Amino acid sequence: MPDGQVCPPYLFSFFHVKIVLMKKRKIFALLVSLILLGLIFYKINWTKLIQTFKMFDLKNLWVIIPMYVSTLYLRGVRWKSLLLSNPKYSAYHLGAVFTVGSMLNIFLPARAGDVYRAYYLGADKQEKKMKLFGNIILERTLDGICVFLILLLAVLLYANQQWMMNLTYMIGAIFIGSFIIFYLAFKFNKIDFIFEKLIKFSSKLPELLSKPIIRILERLNVHTNSFIEGFEVLNSVKYSWQAFIMSGIIWLIECYVAFLIINSFHIHLGFSAALFVISLVSFSTMIPSTSVFLGPYQYAYILALGIYHVDKSTALAISTVHQGILMLILSVIGGFYLLKFNFTLKSSEKDEVNQAIQRL
């Protein structure tokens, strides 16, 4: 806003409401984490917890780390497919951007890492940021569908319990339903028609209200159309299937990493345990919580291994090691690329990214 220009009253109200909602969300997330941590540590066997930590076989890290790092590059390959293999993007660079975003998602609220990915790549490649954000949402939806299929397979083959079936179907409905909505929104784009009707209706309001509302609606129309453009890969059967297949490969590798970590504690569970762990832990990140997903992550791990009668203390130790390894990898690699990107971005572009994250 130019110097000396008075901020309209409706903007004060908007920012006030936004701040209040953010504070309430943080309080709710803290309460969720505290409740789950209370359930986790209730009657915990501290002796067994410490003994389980000591059982971890460090030799397996030589396999675990390269396997997980490979998924970061493969996610860059998948993202390039979602961007219709546009030559201005490289899979390696996209993988690096994804890694930075994943690191920020761990430590910052409201999926700030995904916002960073859209803002940074948009600034670096002169692309519409909302279009890239829509593309990232589609990517997350594909992840959700793949993890749903992993959970469905595990439930049908290894733990056909009613509560698990209900949970699985609910998750499937969310992600498959979202994909269908995105597809229909892209194929039958009625965004301009809807906003024209809203603007026409708003123009009948008193002038004091109609002008700011119309300006907001016009900007929303532009941003929504850009967001929908992020789904243009759905026009290509080739690239859509490439992205979906790559998603499946990525998540199977993640499952194998979980399998290696679990069995590094000499528990010797089958591969199905890793399927439950990855699916439940992945979906647990949808639950509001504090930074590093403290609470939901550990509780989901305990539920997954509880299917195999692994006690809470043992499951908590394994989940802590698993999460710690992944956080360390993402922090080291993501931190390196974050510094590199910040040096290469122009100062104005860097400020735009930082302001977007701070507003969250």
Description:
This protein has about 350 residues and is mainly α. It has helices at about 10-40, 45-55, 60-80, 90-105, 110-125, 130-160, 160-185, 190-200, 205-230, 235-265, 270-285, 295-305, 310-345, 345-360.
In short:
By secondary structure, the protein is mostly helical. The chain has 14 helices and no strands.
Q: How many discrete structural domains?
A: 1
Radius of gyration: 23 Å
Q: Give the CA-CA distance, first to last residue.
A: 20 Å
Task: Give the SSE string.
Answer: HHHHHHHHHHHHHH
How large is the share of residues in beta strands?
Answer: under 5%
**Mean pLDDT figure:** 83
Q: What structural category arises from helix and sheet content? A: mainly alpha
Compute the number of strand runs: 0
| Number of helical regions | 14
Shape: globular
Give short descriptive properties of this protein.
mainly alpha, single chain, globular, disordered N terminus
Topology of helices and strands:
Elements: H1 9-41, H2 46-54, H3 61-82, H4 91-107, H5 112-125, H6 129-158, H7 162-187, H8 191-202, H9 207-229, H10 237-263, H11 271-284, H12 296-306, H13 312-344, H14 347-359
